[in-house]
Structures are given as C-alpha cells and as structure tokens.
Amino acid sequence: MTTAKVKKQHEILEAVVIRFVGDSGDGMQLTGTQFSDTSAMFGNDIATFPNYPAEIRAPQGSLYGVSGFQVHIGSIEISTPGEDLDLLVCMNPAALKTNLSALKAGHTIIIDTDSFTKKNLEKALYASNPLEDGSLNNYRVIEVAMTSLTKEALKDVEGLDNKSITRSKNMFALGMVYWMYDRDMNHTLEFFENKFKKKPSIAEANSKVLKTGFYFAETLELIPNSFTISPSKMPKGRYRIINGNQATAWGFLAAAEKSGLELFLGSYPITPASDILHELVKHKHFGVKAFQAEDEIAGITSSIGASFAGDFAITTTSGPGLALKGEAVGLAMILELPLVIVNVQRGGPSTGLPTKTEQSDLLQAMYGRNGESPLIVIAASTPADCFDWAYEAARLTLEHMTPVLLLTDGYIANGSEPWKIKSIDEMPPITHKQIGGGDPEKWHVYDRDAVTLAREWAIPGTKGFEHRVGGLEKDKTTGNVSYVPENHEYMTNIRAEKVQRVQNSIPDLKSDFNDEGDLLVVGWGGTFGSLHSATKQLSEEGLKIGHVHFNYINPIPKNTEAVFSKFKKVVVCELNNGQLATILRGKFTNIEFSQFNKIQGLPFGVSELTQKFKTLIK
Amino acid sequence: MTEATKYTFKDFASDQEVRWCPGCDDYVILRSMQKALPEMGIKKEDVVFISGIGCSSRFPYYIDSYGMHSIHGRAPAIASGVKLANPDLSVWVITGDGDSLAIGGNHFIHVLRRNLDLNVILFNNEIYGLTKGQFSPTSLIGQKTKTSPYGNTQPPFHPGELALGAQARFFARIGGNTPKEMTQLFIEAEKFKGTSLIEVLQNCVIFNDGCFTQYTDKAVREDKQLHVEHGKPMIFGKERNKGLVLNGLKLDVVTIGENGITESDILIHDAKEPDPTMHAMLVRLDYPLATGIIRAVEELTLEEREKALTKEVKANSKFAKVDDLFLSGETYEVN
Fold this sequence. Notes:
By secondary structure, chain A is α/β, with parallel strands linked by helices. In chain A, about 35% of the residues lie in helices and about 20% in strands.
C-alpha cells in the first residue's frame, strides 16, 4: 500500500491514491481519466474507480449529485483503485462532506473556495462552514478560488459563454495536481486539441486553464513540495488504458475474427452494460451487426435467431435484464446453440443501485431459469482481463455448443487499467462446429461429438440439412418433438454432462502466495484486485495465507477440493450475502466455509479484508 | 433458383404427423403454404420458419425447411436476428392472436416498424386454443370463454389497425377457408420487399367455432367480403352491384344502379398509397369485411439501410483487422 517516505522539497513515493470529487456536471470523470492516462503513459501501473450517481445531472450542489473518480498510481504493482486517500480534490461542499472520511489524516485537500457559498453549504447540510469552523484542522487544506481564477484566466479568450468558462475549472484543478505529481501536461493538451478541433475556443480555454492551474501550484507557497512516482516494472510491450466494458467488447471482436464468424449483438440499453453496445456499434467495418432491440427479451432472442442463422451471437445486459432474458436463455440452452450472455452486475434486487457494483447475480446466473438448464458460467476479474474472458466465453460456446454466461460487474466494467495489447495471432484458436456440407443422410440434429458432446451447427442455406429445432423436448437423435419419459431424462442429463465436460478443457485452480497453510481466501470475479492485495500484504507479513480466485464457476476446476483441503480454514469473500459459498457448500460437504460479505454497492477495501483475515487466523 | 430445382408441395412437407384438431383451418394454411413455396423461386434450404407458442406455432415442424419453434411471443425478434444475420434467407414468422398481440405485442409492433424483408402470418381465431379456451386480445366484447364466463369485458384489437399504427408497409387479410386466394397471397407477400403481415381469419373448431362464419361461409362470402385489388373499383356482392364510396370521412356502401350510382362512382383501391388513411378505414369496416392486399407500400428495408451504411463505414474505415483497432489511438511502450 501507499508508503510515503517523509522528505523535503521533492519526495519519491511508491504509490498514491487521489480522488477527484465534484458535482455531477463538474467534469470529474474527464479530470480523473486524464490524470490516470497521463500517469499510465509515464509508466506507472494504475487502477481507476469512477463512482457516480444514477442521475445524469442531479440538482446542483446536492449530496446525492456528487460524482467522483479515484485513481491509484504506483511504481509498484497496483491491483485496486486504493482505499485511503493521499489527496482529495473537492469542487464543492457536498463533495467534501461525502468524501472527507476517506482522506488519511494529515493529508491534502484541494478545495474550490468559490463554491463554498451559503447556498451550497446549506445544500450539503453543513451547519457551519468547514473552512472556518476548524473541522479540517487534521488535514492540510489548500484553499483556491478556482472559479474566479478560471474566469480571470479566460477573460481575454473570445467566443466563450459563461457556462463554458465555469466548466473549465476542473482543468485548473487538474493543472495543480499535474504539478504536484510531476506530470507532463502534453497528453491533456493534445487531447483538447483533437477533441475540440471544430471548437478551437473551447480547446484554447481548457488548455489555458490547465496551464494556469499548473503554474499557480508551482508558485503557491501552500504547496511546499511535489512528488514523483517512478515508472513501475511492468512486462515490456505496447500498452493502452482500457476499461472492462471496452475490453469485453474487444474480446468479442477478436473472437469473431479468429473464428471467422460475423459478430451479432442483440442488446437493450441498461446501466452499466450499455458501454459494450456503444463500443460494438462503432465497428461496422468489421462486419459487426449490433442491433438495439425493443427490449431485453428481443435483445437475446434476436441473438438466438442470428446464432441459428450462423453468426457468432452475443447479448449484453445487467441484472434486471438477465431476469427478463431468463426464458430465452433456457431456449438457447435446449436448442444447443452457441450464445454468450454478458451480465455486467450492479446492485440489486429490482432496479437496486444501477451505477454501483455488486456480485449478487451469481445464483441467478447459475439457476435463474425454469427446468434443468445448466450453463457454462465464467467471470472476469479485472478491467483488462475482461478481454480474455470475453474471448474465452466465445471459445467455449462455439466449441461446446451451449450458451455461456459471462459475469463482470460495474466496478471492473467502468474501472480501467493498463492492458498489454494482444494481437490476434497470439490468441488461442477457436474451432466452431458449423457444417459446410457433407452427406445429410448420415446426419442427425443431435448427433454429438464423442468427447465434448457438442452437436453440429447446420445453418440455414446449407443444402440437405434442413431441420427444425424448438423449445419442446427433442428426440435424442432425430430432433423431432418427443414426450418419451426416458428420452427427456436422457436429454436433460446429457445437456448437463456436456457442461460438466468443459472441466476437461480448463486449467487447474492455483493458490497464490501459499498453497497450504492457515487460511485460504476464496473469491470470484471482480474482487480479484482487493483480495489479491490483501492476501499479498498478509503473506508478506509472514502469515500462511493463500488466495484462489474462480473465473470458471460452472463447471469449477477439477482440483478445487484438493486445493481447499490444504488449508485449515477457508473464507469465501463476496459482494453479496454468500452466493458462491452456498454453491461450494453444496459441492464440498466436508469443508467448512467461513464468509466475508459486503453489500454496500462498493468494492472491498483492502484493510477491512486484512482485518478479517487476521481474526480468522488467530 | 437454378432451372434444375423445381419443387412440388411435397418437397415442403416434413415427415412429421400433423397434430391439429380435425377440421382446423390450420390445415388449409399449411397446405396453401406448401403449395405457394414451390412457386416463389426460392431454394428450400434458404427458407426459414420461426414460430412462437400456440396452436399455430407448431407450423414449422410440418414444413421441410429450416425452422424454429421458439418461445411465446418472441418469433418476430428471433426472425429479425435470422434476417439480419443472413439477408439472403426467406424468413417467415408464424404466430397467433395471443402470441403476437398479447405476450408478444412489443415485438409485433417493432418488427413492423423496422421493415425487414420478412413475412408474418397471423392466425387470428379470437381465442387461446392451446391453453384451452381463454379470451384473447381479439376476442369480442361479450364473448364467453373459460376466463370470461359472463362475457368478455376487454375491447378487442383490430390487428390491421394496430399494424397500420405500427407503420406496416404490407397488410393483407384472408379467410381461413379460401386456399386458392391464400396461396396467391403468400406468393405476393414473399415478392413484397419489406415486412408483410397477413391476417388469416382462422376458425377454431373446438373453442370458438364459427367465429368468422358470418363473413367466411360460402353462402354469404361474396356478399359480406370485399376482396380488394390494387387499381380496381371496390365492388362486392354476389351480383357485383355493391360498392364503396366516400361520404365525408366515412366509407359508405352503395348499390350500383340505385340513386343514380354508377360503377364510375365507386372508389378505386390504391394499396400503394403511402398515406394510410384509406387503408385504416378499410381495415375497420365490418360490412363488408375487406380481404386481400389492403396496403403494400414499398420503401427501403432495414437490411438495405444497414447494408448501405456498412458499405460506407467500411469504405471510410482505417481498420482492416482488429489488430489495427487495438493499436490505434493512445498507446504507449513499456521498456
């Protein structure tokens, strides 16, 4: 974690956690993204965490309208967006009120004092002005009249309305932070030049305010020193910053190209999954057919149609959408067609917390359908590895001819980190089951591969292979409707067996840090970063603690029980009330599973984890 | 189609035993379709039937082509996916009044709005048959059913009116007991570029027997039905002496030879008129009941729009392979 070596004028830090907070219209997401991109290009490892309200523009100055962007940068390995803040940049009283508790004592807050008006203080439910009442005495407060300084800086720039001027103040803050952390402004200056090619006055305004903030910090006595975070030792190669939704979309693009199939996405807008749709609609040049449907059900059923017709089809959604898709998922399953269903999980139940993260759809993913309808269920664990898991979802569904449910969550979907760019050539092959032709006389709809049990995929347009499929139970060979009792049991079992046999083509589970000892930390999906950091820290302190993380959830790796049995205690950590724990208890009755759960719409903090693990080891 | 492939109706009959109730109009529709398909000039392997749930939706099992019997109400969405994935296919949606106007109402209106080149056959029998006799969205006020023992209180949809409201480009209606006309209508629907909707007035012999007899019975058919044809005067009746005229904003039935009315006074049917006002009046008429192609207005289909746009995007794109995309924009080297 963050370790500041106390020095004089210019300090060198291993890592730092910064949070930019303001009104939802203050441009905090842009500010944070610029800072993290610049740091990544400088060579730092990074992880980011945007945290914003569901309202697009909540009433100005309100507590629930606060939007934040947290970034963790380091010269060391960074696996989470960090916890306790080294620097808080606050654009208004509401932002201060809702975020101050995360700031480490003695650390710095940059505040736009212009926004601390009587009205804004009231909206933030402050009885007295925190800048005056001594409540910030434990922190180093840098008070800056950012709005006025921004106005002053822009008084000679022509063609700007008042709104554009006030909106540039986030760049003043960014400029200051750039100076404090010894960052180059060029990346952001170029960004504005490109983004506002057609509005040069806006580009000029933002650039000017950025520079003004930078030089202001340099001359301001209140900021006694600046810091350097050296480049981290990441594997050599070409990188880019990627968030989980973009990585997911790109994984599917890669899989489509590798498999030689066209990509079809049927989807309906839903937070926080819409960005996958937004990304894929851009790629008509790759032949991507991204279809915005009339509802969630049409999203998946159009994909089922496209899959029947021979495309590599996917559908993307979040929890409530998956609930609506349930019946159709069952259809895809009984048709034994390839289909990937992505669920970017958010806080539930019902509408729940649309912009917050949670892992509470695991049981829905596993069992949320009528009848016996097992799916392959896998989960991504970091923003960048969404690429690999989307690709793996494609491989599994196309090779095994059964739907795959890919779970990500709002935290990794919106969070970003460096991605070492992969090329198609280095990706594993994907062999789909389409029949180009052959002798239809010897072919039956439900003939199966002896190893995987996958059926073949005869698509419309293939002469001689005309056939009917459907949601009614089918004869095990001909595919005709069958109500024969033994046949139904046979088909039910073989569909389950087909999913189970995926175990033969997935890697073993491996415990990190220790493969035996006192405590095994078990997690799945998007909690990887926090669990990894917490376990790493404790193992470095000498505790006999290991960490396993499930990406393959149905089926789970073959050696799971063997790995579990090497530890005295096993704790399953989830952002739900114990859904994986429930599944594991059903499978391994000899093992006692402890739980650590959090359902606050927020990721695990490393310190709450280490605290819990220490008590369990005692 | 190559010259060599000339099909007969038998080529489109699957080996499955047909399991509708004896006397059901569904047999007529099936047979009409099996007769129409060989006339369409389409290869058998390029034909896809997608159905939802209900009596009508067993249809794909009986046609020897590609087919899917899917889930309740969703056939239009599934068919849209099929057509978008492969626009060269001839795609047919088979649905009923419960399937498409109740549980699948949303997909029904949106498939019409989008205008993909596919065909929807709506088997309307004003009742739920497969679930054994509950009222449907087209059941009449007062109709006694399993779920309306004292008479139905929910006003019905006119499928045609709903379709026009959803911007249907092609709407036709046909009695379930007129196989020759039906066969011809299926061929016309396939020829039409865009979404074609055909409402078949289909008698349910078990749960709603005789629901359309007042229009479809042989004895009254000519007097009660107006079979419209594009470009021809809207004349009907055994003696071909009844016709439609416009009276203000309403259609009136007049008799040729009475009150000075001559054939030249009778309205000419214009199925290709983009303004749907007259078509809407026709679909609402209950005397006479308009059958035949009421509306057929071609415009660009969704797949044509998509194809043109994709071509344009491809021509202007700097990305040939996904690797190009991955390396585009802001990247950096770690040494």
